[in-house]
Design brief:
Helix content: 40-55%
CATH topology of the largest domain: Rossmann fold
Pfam family, one: Usp
Family: Belongs to the universal stress protein A family.
Organism: Paraflavitalea soli
Number of helices: 10
Number of strands: 10
CATH superfamily of the largest domain: HUPs
InterPro entries: Rossmann-like_a/b/a_fold, Universal_stress_UspA, UspA
Number of domains: 2
Order of helices and strands: EHEHEHEHHEEHEHEHEHHE
Protein name: Universal stress protein
Radius of gyration: 20 Å
Largest sheet: 10 strands, mixed
Length: 271
């Protein structure tokens, strides 16, 4: 993991994510790239006011971001760079992941009390637009040594072994055990059995175990498991129009992204 991209909006939430990313960068000897996107203010009334130019906003944001970068470099002894662009954040992040060899995006997310803020937010849009792993850090989740990783799957989709490379690399580097969690209904489908066998081959040679939980609600099943089994990282796969998107819908976001209160790593299985 050579480069970690961290979108920054100068809020406490994004600053917390930056600290978490810095801890990871130190462990993996990675380069940290702080990124900020801004939009020019739009007049909303006829009252005259002093218009800020694009150059002034660019310079101001560059100075603020450099201050953040210098602090992380000094505190964690890692390589930190900063980049500021004008534009819509999620679109600029998508383009940046195409332009540079970025291995992971680390973003903050507002938790309890801000349910409406995640829907349609930059974080959600980035998950849907980029094709690289996205690590979501809840606002109140500080960095903890990762010893247990829960990978939740319904085993109904074919995936390539390379999809799990980031997860396996993290587990191997940090010495963490992977708990493969399957939340099933009363009956198990044939494709689920085939999916499990495929996952067993992929995870062979790594410290892992398979756990089956019966629950009609996937989100409830995951949360109940996490409540009784400590885990520092939850992992899910984003397929196009499939399992993850059903989980990350308006009706289920609270249970999955807010109640767990642990970082969520989204692996991208997209064309």
């Amino acid at each position: 993991m050579q480069t970690i991209l961290v979108p920054v909006d100068f809020s406490a939430v994004s600053r917390n994510a930056s600290v978490y990313a810095a801890e990871l960068a130190r462990l993996f000897n990675s380069r940290l790239l702080l990124f900020h996107a801004y939009m020019l203010p739009t007049p909303v009334s006829e009252v005259p006011y002093v218009m800020v130019t694009a150059d002034e906003m660019q310079q101001e944001n560059e100075a603020l971001l450099k201050k953040e970068a210098d602090h992380l470099h000094t505190t964690y002894g890692i390589q930190v760079e900063s980049l500021v662009r004008i534009g819509i954040a999620s679109d600029e992040i998508k383009e940046l992941t195409k332009e540079q060899p970025i291995d992971m995006v680390v973003m903050g997310m507002k938790g309890a009390g801000g349910l409406d803020k995640i829907i349609g937010s930059t974080t959600t849009n980035v998950i849907r637009k980029v094709k690289i792993p996205v690590l979501i850090i809840p606002h109140d989740a500080g960095y903890k040594p990762v010893q247990h990783i829960t990978y939740a799957s319904d085993f109904t989709y074919k995936t390539s072994g390379s999809l799990f490379t980031p997860l396996l690399k993290i587990a191997q580097t940090l010495g963490a055990r992977i708990h493969v969690l399957h939340v099933q209904k009363d009956t198990v489908k044939i494709e689920e059995l085939a999916g499990r066998k495929s996952t067993e081959r992929t995870f062979s040679g790594y410290d892992h175990e398979f756990v089956n939980v019966t629950n009609n609600s996937v989100t409830q099943g995951i949360n109940e498991y996490l409540q009784h089994h400590a885990s520092e990282l939850l992992v899910m796969v984003a397929h196009t129009h499939t399992f993850f998107e059903r989980i990350f819908s308006k009706s289920r976001t609270a249970a999955m992204a807010y109640e767990t209160r642990i970082p969520l790593l989204v692996l991208q299985d997209k064309e």
